[in-house]
Write the structure tokens for this entry.
Amino acid sequence: MSGPRDDLEEGAFAGAGAFASPREQLAFDDDRIYEWEIVPAAAPRLAWMTMPVSFLGIGAGTYGIAWLIGLLSQEWATWLASAGAVICFLTSLWALARSIFGNSAQGIEGATVARNAAVMSIALLMYALVTGAGSEDFANVESAGPGQWALYLIDNALIVILADLPEVYAWSLSEIQAKTEFGQLVGALVRVLITLGVIDVAIRVVRAMTGDNAFFGTVADMYWQCMDVQPVGSVARRVAHVVPDEAPLEFDLEQVLEAFREEGEKTSIVND
């Protein structure tokens, strides 16, 4: 087992004005447990707000790719979007299982993969529905455009967030309603995907609002935590008291990600 170097000069703490070098002071395969703190560039109470922007970016980008394919062949684009939605959904469930039953690093990466795959699945499913896939399974879709399907998505999100109250009291923003068992299955799929995102966002909001960015883990765990934070201007801090003979250190997140990119790719759940 290899570990961080012990020949740190007194005053090397980044608070003195300089970041430590990840390659010189850390080893990716060091299996000792340290206390870390991730300090995002944005104010901790505002950092969570970047997540909805990320969701919109991933969703819009995925929908845009399907739309571009549709310019070449609408039929092929609809078929590929339908298949892609299923694949992304299964990927999300697989990554979620890895995040729950895998090791700590897999848990961190798995949660991120599950969230992003869920967003992509929703985007592809919405494209397929807008372009006519499964139209016979829904009522009032003959003249429904993207706006009505967006309201349908919001309806399902509200059902998840408000614990089924909109469904109980028949509140609905969209005129689109499922009229077959398959249409109901599609609605259930959308709600499962939304639930994955809502739970993840809720956890991050609580952490951001409470300022709880500290955790215990190995260097590899810290790397995967950094992967889920906007790196520009953010800091990873290793607290000293967990290993008394080690000095406290601060690292620039961009340098951490760059230094251990190769090791990270080898340990990714995608390559596991």
